[in-house]
Amino acid sequence: EYLGLKLVARLDQHPSWARAEPVDSGPPDDVNDYGDFVHAVASRYKGRIEGYVIWNEPNLALEWGGGEPDPEGYVEMLKMAYTRIKEADPGALVVSAGLAPTNEQSPQALDDRLYLERMYRAGAKRYFDVLGAHVYGFGHPPDDPRDGHQGLNIARIHDLREIMVDHGDEHKPVWITELGWSTFPVKEDACQCVTPEEQGDYLIGAFGLAEEEWPWVELITVWNVGTGTPADEMTVGYGLIKPESGPSPAYLALKDMPKRGALDS
Description:
Elements lengths: L6 E5 L19 H14 L4 E6 L16 H18 L4 E4 L8 E2 L2 E2 L1 H10 L9 E6 L20 H10 L7 E7 L15 H18 L3 E6 L10 H6 L2 E2 L3 E2 L1 H8 L9
Parallel strand pairs: 1-2, 2-3, 6-7, 7-8
Antiparallel strand pairs: 4-5, 9-10
Helix pairs in contact: 1-2, 2-3, 3-4, 5-7
């Protein structure tokens, strides 16, 4: 712990020497290099980091070196990371990458539900302790029904949980490593944004929903604190602290929300 906080680290990206092609993100050419890296990190911080998230949104080409999403390739990375982390720090938890919620099936993106199903078929079950999930509202309130808006709402998490249960993994928890609503449009042709006041109400509502209906969710991380720059609409839109105006209504609402944690459990 650090300052009373339990730390979780996400291990992704790569140094320039690890790939022949100069891309901003993506797995190294040799997965053993990644294994050496996670082993070194877990050795250095043994007993000090609660868990390690292995990569970020690999179901997007943008996060997979520009290549077509490859669930089987990701499982190879996950297996390597799990094995090397457990060698260095057996008590550390290994968390699967949060997947980007999308219905797309193309070389640029693969539906997160299909991606997770293929992960299981490739043998992922043995190589993670916690399922990571990215949960976004896409402009819709937290009580938007599971079958609403083509599943692009926070109820989509039930689809991921159902896949876990179908593969006998119901004993594992889910960590929501990203949760959010944006106050900026995220698409040119569709405003999936909310008002600053709605952003706060919806985040509080999501925490309440998890408390009441998602007993398998152990952790929720709001993306993001901020502050970004005004030109960075993605970060600023989801951010709780705005670069020009400071703490948002959502920040203040979360600040005042009753907390449940190690100090009061």
